[in-house]
Write a structure and sequence with these properties.
The complex is a heterodimer of chains A (114) and B (118). By secondary structure, chain A is mainly beta. Chain A contains no helices and 11 strands. In chain A, strands 2, 4, 5, 6, 9, 10 and 11 form a 7-stranded mixed β-sheet that branches. Chain A has a 4-stranded antiparallel β-sheet with strand order 1-3-8-7, with no helix packed on it. In chain A, a hairpin with a 5-residue loop joins strand 4 and strand 5. Chain A is globular and about 40 Å long. Helix content of chain B is 0%, strand content 50%. Chain B is an all-beta fold and 118 residues long. In chain B, strands 2, 5, 6, 10, 11 and 12 form a 6-stranded mixed β-sheet that branches. In chain B, a hairpin with a 2-residue loop joins strand 7 and strand 8. The chains are: A mainly beta (114), B mainly beta (118). Chains A and B meet through strand 5, strand 9 and strand 10 of A and strand 5, strand 6 and strand 10 of B.
């Protein structure tokens, strides 16, 4: 059973399009995240949700809108895609309030904007 | 200021030898946790090992151990008996405690690319 699953794994789209990436975790965690990994492998947090509430928004353009219908799901919708949005996007989850628990990652979505 | 520094962009090691990947961190919070992740070429992020700031002993997990030197603020990953499958990017990350007031997100280093030679 996959702990954190995100779909699709690959996404190729044209500039200006709107696309969504879905994420689901079956670990019972309260906190979910979206990370962006650029071409230089730098990982940067974008958003964090705790029990469906937004708790971290790291200066991400408002073309990016996360949505958490329940605590097991955190989807990422991107409007008006730009070339610079090309990256690998990772969803992750972790329990709340425990310092020593690692974040569990999905397999990543490689987004290519052409 | 960079909170997590990995000074080695790339490292080479001979198969079966040990290798140390460096990580230094910066925090004023007495409570924090340090993590190492592995990212192979297939792209997934794999958790390797955790060290808490109050842990008395260095963490070990199989062939992975963490050389934690609190006064120096370093948390180097040691991989013993390297295998070809250890070739990957390795990331050091830190989670600060409640005093940091930053919702306890993971702060990441830039990574070290390790190549294991046969």
């Amino acid at each position: 059973d996959t702990a954190v699953s995100q779909t699709p794994k690959y996404l190729v789209t044209q500039m200006g399009n709107d696309k969504s990436i879905k994420c689901e975790q079956n670990l019972g965690h309260d906190t979910m995240y979206w990370y962006k990994q650029d071409s230089k492998k730098f990982l940067k947090i974008m958003f964090s949700y705790n029990n469906k509430e937004l708790i971290i928004n790291e200066t991400v353009p408002n073309r990016f809108s996360p949505k958490s219908p329940d605590k097991a799901h955190l989807n990422l919708h991107i409007n008006s895609l730009e070339l610079g949005d090309s990256a690998v996007y990772f969803c992750a989850s972790s329990p709340t309030g425990r310092m020593n628990t690692e974040a569990f990652f999905g397999q990543g979505t490689r987004l290519t904007v052409v | 200021a960079q909170k997590i520094t990995q000074t080695q962009p790339g490292m080479f090691v001979q198969e079966k030898e040990a290798v140390t990947l460096d990580c230094t961190y910066d925090t004023s919070d007495p409570s924090y946790g340090l993590f190492w992740y592995k990212q192979p070429s297939s792209g997934e992020m794999i958790f390797l090992i955790y060290q808490g700031s109050y842990d008395q002993q260095n963490a070990t997990e199989g062939r992975y151990s963490l050389n934690f030197q609190k006064a120096r603020k370093s948390a180097n990953l040691v991989i013993s008996a390297s295998q070809l499958g250890d070739s990957a990017m390795y990331f050091c990350a830190m989670r600060e405690g409640p005093n940091a007031g930053n919702n306890r997100k993971l702060i990441w280093g830039l990574g070290t690319s390790l190549a294991v030679n046969p």
